[in-house]
């Protein structure tokens, strides 16, 4: 079955950038929509961005539009989340998640859509 592992998290100053990677294994990435979620201490897990299985469509949370981008390389089994102009409120554990899809649609308003999850990577934005 599909397995996901996030990497690239760390400590960055406000205004800085980080690029997270989600490495996918156990099946063919090209059949899966991938989403990025995050969870800050004491808060619910929230959707950040997603990309459809073929990369045709993407969605972003309002709070990250214009700052975050998402991309994928199905041949290498990797999905990326580029985060620019980071703010302290972006501090959270970031998770990637996958769902087998037959269409070019992805959603971020619910976690229940996604069946496979990575363990998460910590992103801390602080000076």
- Mean pLDDT across all residues, rounded? 96
Could you spell the SSE succession in H and E letters? EEEEEEEEEEE
Q: N- to C-terminal separation?
A: 40 Å
Low-confidence stretches: none
Number of helices: 0
Strand content: over 45%
Global morphology: globular
How many β-strands, per DSSP? 11
Structural Rg: 13 Å
The helix content is: under 10%
The chain-level structural class is: mainly beta
Instruction: Report the major sheet.
Output: 7 strands, mixed
Short characterization:
0% of the residues lie in helices and 48% in strands. It has 127 residues and is an all-beta fold.
Q: What labels would you give this structure?
A:
127 residues, mainly beta, four-stranded antiparallel beta sheet, globular
Commentary on this structure:
The chain starts with a strand and ends with a strand. It is globular and about 40 Å long. Helices cover 0% and strands 48% of the residues. It has 127 residues and is mostly beta strands. Strand 5 and strand 6 form a beta hairpin. Strands 2, 4, 5, 6, 9, 10 and 11 form a 7-stranded mixed sheet that branches. A 4-stranded antiparallel sheet has the order 1-3-8-7, with no helix packed on it. It has no helices and 11 strands.
């Amino acid at each position: 079955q599909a397995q996901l592992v996030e990497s690239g998290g760390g400590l960055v100053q406000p205004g800085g950038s980080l690029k997270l990677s989600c490495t996918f294994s156990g099946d063919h990435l090209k059949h899966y929509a991938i989403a990025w979620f995050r969870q800050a201490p004491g808060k619910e897990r929230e959707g950040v961005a997603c990309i459809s299985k073929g990369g045709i469509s993407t969605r972003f949370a309002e709070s990250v539009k214009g700052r975050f981008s998402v991309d994928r390389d199905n041949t290498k089994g990797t999905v990326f989340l580029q985060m620019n102009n980071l703010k302290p409120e972006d501090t959270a554990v970031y998770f990637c998640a996958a769902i087998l899809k037959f269409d070019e649609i992805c959603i971020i308003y619910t976690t229940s859509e996604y069946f496979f999850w990575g363990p998460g990577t910590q992103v801390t934005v602080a000076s």
